[in-house]
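Issue 218. Parser rejects a valid record. Input:
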Amino acid sequence: MLKNRIQNPAVRNLVEWVIAIGFALLLFFALRMFLFRVAHVSGASMSPTLVDGDRVILNRAAVVFGEPRAGDIIAFPYPANPSEHHIKRVIGVPGDIVDFTGDRFIVNGNPLDDDFSHEWVRSGGNVAFPLIVEEGHFFVLGDNRNASKDSRYSTVGTIAGGDIVGRVLVRIWPFDSFGQVD
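Output the parser choked on:
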């Protein structure tokens, strides 16, 4: 091996450090690319679950090796600015019928039971309801319905499964709110 051929102990030590740091960086980038990613919450659309300035870890493996389920919080590129991640809650999965009547969302004939959203929903957006979630897509809403641009609006629409960056796993910032996100 190369380090066995190096006679100078200081140079040998330096080579060992460079190899160790290189391996650690390679491992870090592999984990970041395939398993986890950090995302920044911007705005009030997911309040009170997530608030402006929160940092969360996204589980990429959850969407690479499986599909999101209703209730999961996911991140995806915002269509108007793909460099930004939008974080929303999955309400409808492929084949679900999502409807909006008056001030409530109804999924497959059942009123959406979402105790995190305590306000009357003022708008059903500009998409036509009832809406059947097409294969490979997901209907998402922000928890703060009246401050969210989500699947109710044609500028966002339903989210293709291949566009989902990851499922929110844990809040890491601020430290006093560290923990699993539901």
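Fixed in the parser; the record now loads. The helical segments are 2-5, 9-34, 61-64.
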